[in-house]
Design a protein that fits this description.
Layout lengths: L19 H10 L3 E5 L3 H10 L3 E4 L3 H4 L11 H13 L5 E5 L9 H15 L3 E3 L5 H12 L4 E6 L18 H16 L4 E5 L3 H7 L7 E4 L7 E4 L1 H4 L17 H17 L14 H11 L1
Parallel strand pairs: 1-2, 1-8, 2-3, 3-4, 4-5, 5-6, 6-7, 7-8
Helix pairs in contact: 2-4, 4-5, 5-6
Bound molecules: 3-methyl-2-oxobutanoic acid (KIV).
């Protein structure tokens, strides 16, 4: 199945599509890398219009879009639908598909098969998987060897948050921080083109950054990373509650959506909608003939 049939033109026609060499160059030059999640056509169009570098179809879709209370229930099939929609809205950012829980842990073969589906069926240019333990490193190496770029993800890894002791910052002891460092280096050695650092103390990130050669994108990991990622629904306030400490909110769209739908509801109930400007006309003679036929 071709997934590229509805790729849009970039908002800025002069902007080059993001590639792995360009990303590495951004790190070398110290230019901040911008990544955001997207899960459908309109969110992808916003990312394209803003000129972000990387778009992640995150498994955070489980909570932001599908209404689950954690990321573990989302299926590969769900992710493929969402990634295809995002693909249709993008031209220049590099599109990364998140491998959902259960789609890569069983074996290297399972991981390659499902990563290929992300590429072939949804048009993703890379995949992301969580964790830096032996299993994740082996999966990353296998997917890279199959020709698919892999982004690693260490620190707070939401798919295994229960095993990590809950949704909380990681690497807050020397031993735990050294473990994150070892995982990051193992993923880099396995061939990952970039890493996500999630919910790690800023001072730990600062210690780790000089040891890592590939771009590091932070979320709750402080300002020392090569770039930042936020979840679309968090940064735009399409959610109840404030979310994690690291979220900066740039809009309150949930409130605006609620107000809009409430105003429409009120208009229908009070017959203010539809007004004459929302209706279609018919030639009076045609109407008279219809009336005669019906009566
Ligand atoms: O699923 C997701 O949105 C993520 C980002 C927070 C990095 O993994």
């Amino acid at each position: 199945m071709s997934s590229h049939t509805h790729v849009q033109a970039p908002s800025d026609p002069g902007r080059l599509p993001m590639t792995l060499p360009l990303l590495a160059e951004k790190k070398r030059l110290g230019e901040p890398i911008v990544m955001v999640t997207a899960y459908d056509y309109p969110s992808a169009r916003s990312a394209e219009a803003a000129g972000v570098d990387l778009v992640l179809v995150g498994d955070s879709a489980a909570t932001t879009v599908l209404g689950y209370s954690s990321t573990t229930p989302v299926e590969l099939g769900d992710m493929l639908v969402l990634a295809r929609a995002a693909r249709r809205g993008l031209q220049t950012p590099l599109l990364i598909g998140d491998m959902p829980f259960g789609s890569y842990e069983v074996s290297d073969e399972q991981a390659i098969t499902n990563a290929m589906r992300m590429v072939k069926e949804a048009g993703c240019e890379a995949v992301k998987l969580e964790g830096g333990g032996v299993g994740s490193v082996s999966r990353a190496r296998a997917i890279v060897a199959a020709g698919i770029p892999v982004m690693g993800h260490v620190g707070l890894t939401p798919q295994t948050a229960t095993a990590l002791g809950g949704w909380k910052a990681q690497g807050r002891t020397a031993t735990a921080a050294a473990q994150i460092a070892a995982e990051a280096l193992a993923l880099q050695e396995a061939g990952c083109f970039a890493l996500v650092f999630e919910a790690i103390p800023s001072a730990v990130t600062e210690e780790l950054m000089p040891t890592i050669e590939i771009p590091v994108i932070g979320i709750g990991a402080g300002p020392a990373t090569d770039g930042q990622v936020l979840v679309f629904h968090d940064l735009l306030g399409i959610r109840d509650g404030l979310g994690a400490r690291f979220v900066k909110r740039y809009a309150n769209l949930q409130e605006e959506m609620n107000a809009g739908v409430a105003a429409y509801t009120e208009d229908v109930r009070t017959r203010r909608y539809p007004g004459p400007e929302h209706t279609y006309s018919i030639d009076p003679s045609e109407l008279a003939e219809l009336h005669a036929r019906l009566n």
